[in-house]
Amino acid sequence: MAQFDVYANPNPATRATVPFVVDVQAGLIDQLPTRLVMPLSRVGASQSRLPLNLCPSVEVNGEALRLMPHLAAAIDKRLLRLPVLSIAYRANEVGAALDAAVCGI
Question: What angle do CA 92, 64, 80 make, to 5 degrees?
Fold first, then answer.
């Protein structure tokens, strides 16, 4: 598993609004049975009122989704199957979004 890999949401109950999650956990703690993920949501994807530094837009399979760092959660890493893509090239934005949610900066 790699930090910033995008996976299909393993939870069928939320998959309609959150089709994907991003693994944001550092490799330093790979030995844990869980991974910290952030949802990529359809809800609010087209709303300009969401702050871009908190909820940046991410395109997955041609669909614009919003990263929701304020809804980050740990999930069992066995639930994450094959990654769909990597957004490692946007690591600074993902980190900044997490900082905005946690530190308010």
Answer: 70
